[in-house]
Design a protein that fits this description.
The radius of gyration is 24 Å and the shape is elongated. Helix content is 45%, strand content 21%. Helix 10 links the parallel strand 8 and strand 9. The chain has 13 helices and 12 strands. By secondary structure, it is an alpha/beta fold.
């Protein structure tokens, strides 16, 4: 019944709570009735299509989640996980950056070494990436490093620098005599029309804080929630964009893009794998973490090599 209460607190719906715990909706309603009797509290009140917790029920949410997480970790099997014979399914939340920079290498590994394992990449929850671990029931999320909640375990995966991209033969860059891999003059950089990557549609994004410290601002005329769309738009227009260097290197040949250096030092992003601490001891989850980290570390090594080549040009 405690799992039912936890699901109800999380979902605010008997139907979704039933799906979460693998029971029928009548069974969840019956369990809720028994909980109300045992705890001498209505626990939830209906509000439109949702049920809202009483003050007492809301006070139970965090400690109940902690108890269930501790119990899950205590009882989790520590048996060795054999991916070659497993038909496990793993869900990873991340931006479409990882559709290009992670999933192709994972696809090759799945096909050649673990043909029965399935991996799904899903979008992050906008404005609250950590919430993806709960609301999307994902095994892992790939996000920039921030101050994570205490229930989140994390491991740094790779560092990513940023570069500016424009279509090959961009007329304004050409007229200014700026060649690929050159540093774009500040006035020109700020005056060019930029696309910003922002799942939330924010006009301020990567690089803008660094410009603001110098009293400058770039001309952002468009935002997109996906890197793939940004690359396509840049390749077919005179718009420019800031992209993670590994993605820019990969997409340059495919989309006819040229790479340039921004006129202001841009912060390097530390990308982390994050997961719920209840999965720390799970052998299958440990295999997933090690596999994803190996693929992303290979991408970071590749970027370092490309960066050294770029600086030599």
């Amino acid at each position: 019944m405690l799992r039912v209460l936890d699901a109800l607190l999380h979902e605010k719906s008997t139907v979704r709570a039933a799906e979460r715990v693998g029971l029928s909706q009548p069974a969840v309603s019956a369990a809720l009735g028994r909980l109300r009797l045992a705890l001498d509290d209505p626990l939830f009140v209906r509000h439109g299509q949702r049920i809202l917790p009483t003050e007492f029920a809301a006070s139970l949410e965090i400690p109940l989640r902690q108890v269930l997480d501790s119990l899950s970790e205590l009882l989790s099997r520590q048996d060795d996980f054999d991916p070659r014979s497993s038909d496990g399914r793993f869900k990873i939340a991340g931006s479409d950056y990882f559709a290009e920079m992670l999933m192709p290498s994972l696809a090759q590994l799945l096909a050649t070494e673990v043909p029965r394992v399935k991996v799904q990449l899903v979008e992050l929850v906008p404005d609250n990436y950590v919430a993806s671990l709960e609301s999307l029931d994902v095994d892992m999320a790939l996000v920039p490093k921030v101050d994570f909640p205490s229930w989140v375990a994390f491991q740094p995966a790779f560092l990513s620098s940023f570069v500016m991209v424009a279509r090959q033969g961009h007329p304004r860059l050409a007229r200014a005599g700026v060649q690929p891999y050159d540093t774009v003059p500040m006035d020109l950089f700020c005056d060019l029309s930029h696309i910003a990557f922002s799942p939330e549609g924010k006009l301020k994004a990567m690089g803008d804080a660094a410009l603001a410290r110098l009293g400058r601002e770039r001309n952002v005329v468009m935002t997109m929630p996906v890197f793939g769309g940004i690359c396509s738009a840049v390749s077919e227009s005179d718009l420019v964009a800031l992209l993670p260097r590994p993605l820019a290197q990969k997409m340059a040949a495919q989309k006819g893009l040229s790479i340039y250096v921004a006129p202001v030092p841009l912060p390097t992003a530390q990308i982390c794998m994050i997961w719920h601490k209840r999965n720390n001891g799970n052998a299958a989850h440990r295999w997933l973490r090690e596999t994803v980290l190996a693929q992303l570390s290979a991408a970071e090594t590749s970027e370092q090599g490309e960066s050294r080549k770029d600086s030599a040009q």
